[in-house]
Amino acid sequence: MEKVVLAFSGGLDTSVCIKLLEEKYNMEVITACVDVGQPREEIERPASVAVDLGNYKHHTLDAQREFAEDYIFKAIKANALYEGYPLSTALARPLIAMKIVELAKKEGATTIAHGCTGKGNDQFRFEAIIRSMSDCDVIAPIRDLNLTRTEEVEYAKSCDIPLPSDKMYSIDENLWGRAIEGDILEDPMVEPPEDAFSWTKSSTDSPEEPQILEMEFENGVPISLDGEKMGPLDLINKCNEIAGLHGIGRVDIIEDRIIGLKSREIYETPGAFLIITAHHALEQITLTRSELKFGENITSTYSELIYNGLWHDPLREDLDHIIDHMQRRVRGTVKIRLHKGSMRIVGRKSPFSLYQQDVVSFEDKALDQREMTGMVKNYAMQAAFYNKICKKD
Ligand code: ARG
């Protein structure tokens, strides 16, 4: 029998895929779950479901550090956001696909399978990598059979696949955030019920007292919280915890998917918002106006590459070079005030600060104001000509 490696989360879609791959495609299924910092239960569940469903050979592939250092840190330096979404799922997909490709090679499998539907973005992100990094065939059973969620449930019942409890949300979690879609959330006018959230407190339940947090950066990435040095993983986890406690990072948007569908997406990305906000505040004091302006273009292009599953496009690497060069000066400390769902930068300092307090101060004479007279007088020359010449009646 031909071997297939299935990217397996233990949820409904991929559990249905195991059985379909056996029954309809006649294949020997090996399952794998890549650890990109999802909660422990999400790592343990696929391993136990793989056993329960029929003793399938299952692998847990640890990619947490790689995800934090080589993916999230790059996204922070680029301030990556797509339509207000910090790209948590999108950023992890290429890494997951690469790990699955490595495993398929080791296992001598000629096919890789995933549980994506034909409507979402992840099919593009997985397959772009699989096809670029291997000669494996790809099977997407849910898409191939054009199954609806209800048909999946019917099929699951017929082969004793355990069903998710009451809510039918589709959830994807990793170190950089949590995405919640589907079920009642598909109606864009329905307010997400409190049970959709698990990383963030509602502002009514968050602490009465504000918290002031100091985050230190070096080369554009965070290295310490309140003076305590931390590795990337611990630091990001801690940021999720602190910002989540204060109700930061809930997002409810209509998002433009790759295929053009608009979809309603809910996210909880407390750490991502906290870190990117602090990072950008430090850029404002260390980078020039032109760098900041150009940085907006970088953010937009970089974020689209991630969203569109083109992490391995050479343009991403090209951009990394310019970003890294610029980020050498993004060093210093940012002070953030967190309170009841809101977050505000209340301080920043840097050894490379371009903010010259003495010159800008109302009290100082270092800059002779009189020297500005001619510059101001001749400012907006073209607008002046336009208004005087063209608008004459
Ligand atoms: N819309 C997001 C993206 O394309 C998240 C998808 C998350 N998937 C999920 N099953 N909730 O990156």
Report a brief summary of the structure.
The protein has 393 residues and is α/β, with parallel strands linked by helices. 43% of the residues lie in helices and 20% in strands.
Q: Which short descriptors sum up this protein?
A:
393 residues, alpha/beta, Argininosuccinate synthetase, chain A, domain 2, five-stranded antiparallel β-sheet, binds arginine
Describe it for me?
The chain has 393 residues and is of the alpha/beta class. It folds into three domains: 3-166, HUPs (Rossmann fold), CATH 3.40.50.620; 172-349, Argininosuccinate synthetase, chain A, domain 2, CATH 3.90.1260; 359-390, no CATH class. 43% of the residues lie in helices and 20% in strands. The protein is built from 14 helices and 14 strands. The chain has helices spanning 12-23, 40-52, 64-77, 88-107, 122-133, 141-144, 149-158, 232-245, 270-286, 289-307, 314-327, 357-360, 373-377, 381-390, and strands spanning 3-7, 28-35, 57-62, 111-113, 137-139, 170-174, 177-181, 211-218, 221-225, 228-229, 250-256, 262-268, 332-339, 342-349. The chain has a five-stranded parallel β-sheet with strand order 3-2-1-4-5, with helices on both faces. A five-stranded antiparallel β-sheet has the order 10-9-8-13-14. Strands 6-7-12-11 form a four-stranded antiparallel β-sheet. A hairpin with a 2-residue loop joins strand 13 and strand 14 (342-349). Helix 1 packs across helix 7 (149-158). The longest helix has 20 residues, at 88-107. The chain is elongated and about 85 Å long. The structure holds arginine.
